[in-house]
Amino acid sequence: MFALMLTSSITTVLLMVTSAALAWVAYEIYSQNKRRSKEIAVDGLLEPPTPVRIPIIGHLHLMGGYEVPYQAFSFLGKKYGDIVKLQLGNVKCVVVNGQKNIKEALVTKGHHFDSRPNFQRYQQLFSGNKENSLAFCDWSDTQKTRRDMLKAHTFPRAFTNNFSSLESLISSGTRSATSEIKPGEVTHLKPIILKHCANIFLSHFCSKHFSTTDENFSEMVENFDEIFYEVNQGYAADFLPFLMPFHRKNLERMNLLAHKIRRFVEDEVVEDRFDDLDVESEPNDYLESLIRNVRGGETPSLPWDTALFALEDILGGHSAVGNFLVKVFAFLVNEPDVQRKIQKEIDEVVGGDREVTIGDRPRMPYTEATVYEAIRLIASPIVPRVANQDSSIDGYRIENGTVLFLNNYDLSMSDQLWEQPGKFLPERFVKEGRLIKPEHFLPFGGGRRSCMGYKMVQLVAFGILGGFLQNFTVLPVDNETYRVPIGSLALTKDTFKFRFARR
Ligand code: HEM
């Protein structure tokens, strides 16, 4: 009897919930139609099409069943048109598909869409204030200053002292990394690559170098990697803040790691240089540029805390390059032909008597193209933008505060734009012996919030890849599968292992 009563009350509740959901859907369809016709009439802008949504979660359920949400965005683009409005939990969003529309958002109207999402997680990851972060802050004079100061260091020009210093740092880092490889043995490559990338970054930006057996240094590299993995994850809690308590422990751990990194940077990287620097002299590295700015050598000056966050963000770029390189090797394990072509290029251009250097890039388009091809296939997303005012894209209204997902996954993987997009074919980026970059290839975003590290990625990845393949052929390890995760640069700590055969 009790069971029967329970069943019938469950049925009643289910009926009520179903009726409420149906009523909601009917109301949604009705109000969409009403909105559309009304708003075209008011200002000539169209309301972007939007699928029917569900109470509380909005359209979050539409992201299910895909390897990455950007695949869902491509599907929605095909179904509803290039510009699609979504309500993801409590966040109003617009998906922008298509090269022309993405360029409108990044470049033509870049100043309308130069903020970043205000996810609680970003706030908590940067000491309670996402404005401390170079990549997740909104646009401001401070951000302009930070970007301007970085340019000379992250985009060193060929034939300058800065470039040749970076060239020898990459060569010596590559030499040390290859010397740690034991041919034929199962090699956990990620820790080796990360440490050498970290030393290249620390030497280039701060003129500091650490022994790879230094425990504090090794811990710092691991801490950066763990945080890098975290910031690359997307969580439902970003859109449904009531789920944040489930992430509390994890975020506390990230704060602890960030705190340890800060201690390392202050004690072992900056040391006494803040007080000792002669601010009248030309800065020798990025750290000195920051100190000069903070101590009033330039206007507007940054608070020291802000400068330290910027320094840590840039040093953390080594995790991006290191993880990316491990993915490049994981692609190459399945591509012996590509390895042979790179090695042929190395043999023809460099020979065996000297090392590959980043100065060889103009004569080694195939090796450079391999870096591009890996970036294309990983299809990591453009960091979402946010509209700082009411605006439009392709004639569709975008309200102030809307989060924009710019679908570069589609630009990288569309069979309308690439032949055999699923295949690893570096030659697609080489034409008449020169590297080409198609206009629709936008892995580093564009406009005033474009990636500040893409040159470092190209230079360091080229140098290390060239140096490894000059000396070794990369081989699989028994029972390991090499399926490279897409949609993010980050890899887990315990990732692919390889074997290296000496050439
Ligand atoms: C393969 C590796 C990398 C990829 C695919 C990548 C891609 C991107 C993308 C798509 C953005 C957003 C651009 C936009 O909104 O238009 C970005 C922002 C940024 N990247 Fe990278 N990046 C990589 C490595 C690096 C490295 C190594 C550094 C540092 C040396 C770096 C520094 C930055 C910074 C500071 C921003 C924020 C710029 C801003 O918001 O003003 N990136 N990156």
Summarize the structure.
The protein is of the alpha+beta class and 503 residues long. The chain has helices at residues 2-43, 69-80, 99-108, 120-125, 141-154, 161-179, 189-206, 215-231, 248-270, 273-276, 286-294, 304-315, 317-333, 336-349, 365-378, 408-413, 454-471, and strands at residues 83-88, 91-96, 385-386, 391-393, 396-398, 403-406, 430-431, 434-435, 472-475, 499-502. Protoporphyrin IX containing FE binds next to α5, α12, α13 and α17.
Structure description:
The structure is a single chain. Residues 1-10 have low confidence and may be disordered. The chain has a single domain (125-502), classed as Cytochrome P450 (Cytochrome p450, Orthogonal Bundle), CATH 1.10.630.10. It is built from 17 helices and 10 strands. The strands form 4 sheets. A 4-stranded mixed sheet has the order 1-2-6-3. A two-stranded antiparallel sheet has the order 4-5. It has a two-stranded antiparallel ribbon with strand order 7-8. 51% of the residues lie in helices and 7% in strands. Residues 106, 134-135, 147, 154, 313-314, 317, 320-321, 324, 375, 380, 382-383, 443-446, 449-453, 456-457, 489 line the site of protoporphyrin IX containing FE.
